[in-house]
Amino acid sequence: MNKLYRTVIVEDTYIDRQALEKIISDLPQIQLVGVATTIMEAFSICEKIKPDFIIADGKMGQEKSAGANFVKNIRKLLPEVRVLGLTYHPDLIDGLKRAGCDYVANKALIESPEAAKKFIREALSPKPEYYRPFAPPTLSETQDRVLRLICEGYTEDEIAREFGNDSRKPIRNIKNALFDIFGAKSVANLVHLAYKSGYLHPDRDI
After folding, report:
1. What pLDDT is stored for residue 9 in this prediction?
2. Considering only CA atoms, which of 100, 36, 42, 43 is closest in space to residue 68?
3. Helix or strand run (H / E) with residue 69
């Protein structure tokens, strides 16, 4: 990792925030450029600074879904940004992954600074470059609706209910077709490519 990652910390707990600042100060590839203690502040900082890397708490304030919603929307604004999600709540991990985190770590498992650095390296590790420039694809009305619901963080079961289906199998088939169309390998990658290809636009689809 020779690149210098301009980094923003989004964390409302003072002790955790201080610990993160100390840990990343030991990593020469990390440059701390912003710290946010609220979601509103985080959006303001990220819109202005456009960081390369965000370390985000999964639960900000009293809203357990706040962290995932932040990641989902910041992905629309900054498709290329790397995101490490952190949480003490195991039930939030799946939602953070679906929202677009490159890596999610349970804070309870971070027993030392070295363990924390390992999770940071995981989030910043090179990923296969699935994207290649292409014109925005043409989707059917159903594929378009499923894609937009996926980008909103809906699960297969939730999308099936939106369509009035008893089974999620038809939705999974549509999702797999979208993976093939965009050349995606994961939900986070699909969301990234939907915006990067120009099919969805941050200014119109947030």
Report:
1. 97
2. 100
3. helix 66-77
